[in-house]
Design brief:
This protein is of the alpha+beta class. The protein has helices at about 1-5, 10-25, 60-65, 105-110, 160-175, 195-215; strands at about 45, 50-55, 70-80, 85-90, 115-120, 135-140, 145-155, 155-160, 180-190. The protein is about 35% helix and about 30% strand. Strand 6 (about 135-140) and strand 7 (about 145-155) form a beta hairpin.
Length: about 220
């Protein structure tokens, strides 16, 4: 396994860059500017066809492990499509204290969910020729199945990979004086074998919410 790791050129390059970045990250005399991001509790209750349905606090044990500076966990519903969506944003004002989001591909299996499939896909949006890449992730526990879409915001960048998000942190700090980061996660339950319907609902919500999240962070 170790030999395979070192023969994996992309992983090796990313590892070397991250190690170099760590030295610069904590050693540079750049003064970080903590951005004045509005509290996530002020995120819109209604947008597009979606309406606020409920708000759920993160489990205290999970919250203690993550230690985010702010977060939002809500359920939205669309009467038009009879869709129910769980929406989570976990936000950190800086990476320089060592705290950052955890990937759902670590957290969900740790809660008993089993991987069914995972891939990176573009989040196609009208008028955007270079759509951001996001993760499409399906998990199952017993007869329950969830369709998950998630991505990371690293300053002005939206990316699918947490390692890439970390790589963006250094230029963001140098150019803009900020290293704030956020995980955005969308979950839609899959009814029976209706995976395509859950996919359509999750990606419609992602397209509708993406510009609002970007506006909140930027």
């Amino acid at each position: 396994m170790i030999a395979h790791y070192w023969n994996d050129r992309p992983t090796l390059v990313a590892s070397v860059l991250l190690l170099a970045q760590i030295g610069l990250y904590y050693g540079m005399p750049v003064k970080e500017q903590i951005p004045a991001v509005s509290p996530w509790s002020q995120f819109p209750n209604e947008f597009g066809a979606w309406r606020w349905a409920s708000e759920t606090p993160i489990d205290p044990e999970v919250l203690a492990a993550l230690q985010p500076d702010d977060y939002l966990q809500r359920t939205y519903v669309s009467a038009q499509r009879d869709a129910l969506v769980s929406f989570l944003v976990v936000y950190f004002r800086t990476r320089r204290n060592g705290r950052a989001p955890h990937s759902p591909q670590w957290c969900l299996p740790g809660s008993g969910w089993k991987d069914v499939s995972a891939r990176v896909v573009p989040l196609a949006m009208p008028g955007q020729p270079n759509p951001p890449a996001v993760n499409e992730y399906i998990v199952q526990k017993g007869t329950e199945r969830l369709f998950v879409v998630y991505w990371y915001h690293q300053g002005s960048h939206a990316v699918a990979n947490d390692v890439i998000a970390q790589l963006y942190a250094l230029p963001e700090m140098i150019l803009h004086g900020r290293t704030d980061t956020a995980l955005v996660r969308i979950i839609v339950p899959v009814a029976g074998e209706q995976t395509d319907r859950a996919r359509a609902e999750a990606f419609q919500f992602a397209r509708d919410v993406f510009p609002l999240v970007s506006q909140q962070i930027h």
